[in-house]
Amino acid sequence: MIAAYAPGSVSNVACGFDVLGFALDEPGDVVIAAQKDGPGVVIAGIEGDGGRLPTDPARNTAGAAVQALLKRLETTRGVSLTIHKGLPLASGIGSSGASAVAAVVAVNELLGRPAALDLLLACAMAGEQAGCGASHPDNVAPSLYGGFVLARSANPPDIVRLPVPEGLACAVLHPHVEVQTGAARALLGNTVPLGDAVRQWGNLGALVASLFNGDQALLSRSLEDVIAEPKRASLVPGFHAVKAAALSAGALGCSLSGSGPSVFALASSMAVATRAGDAMRHAFNAESGVGADVWVSLVGRQGARVIS
User: Which pLDDT does position 150 carry in this prediction?
Assistant: First the structure.
């Protein structure tokens, strides 16, 4: 048996809608792969999902990703998967993508590592598409590769790996509410005013430059979303108070993680991220009667890995 861990991820990163993401160190999902008699994939068990995820491999992101991998490798070997969810569902931190990534990494190790990372990425994306109806390279790619990534193209995947400034850390507030990606995307419509688009492009280019230069001031100025955040902020109780609290505590910037409801704040160090996380929790509790979790971690440089 082989166990693999894949971390959660923050996508969009304010100005990088659908193209930018980074990995967290934790939390994440663990998938255990074991050889079974006969061909095909079975889901032997799922823990941590409250019984909500399907065990039909064709409808489960992890199962469908492994089916895609076995097909691409042209093997008839059979695989059994056990999924341990450390990431909450519909949380905006890449829960479905992490399961798919952990599954293909575990099975690839079980088979003797015949597949390169690019093939694992393609299969994880195919699994996410089959399992939840959409595929997000800005979640799957950082979960697999670690660090910051820029998804220049989703089909075919063209992933640019970006540097991570030393010590860069993140606080994530996860309210105990769910935001379905499809519903959140519907709020955006299909058009963007040209002025907003130009401002967003400028922020994205500057953010990429700040990662290469280690320029925290430029990074802070670039963490601005003028397209998705204004339309989605209402989905998160107390969002504006949470953002203000993070910035007051010294965070470089704060925005929605993916389509929400999670809210992330980037910080120059773990100490600042911890202060920002505490401030975000306090602000959220004052604005909402809903519970929330807070995770603080370095931006995860390693990505998915075999753990046993």
Answer: 97
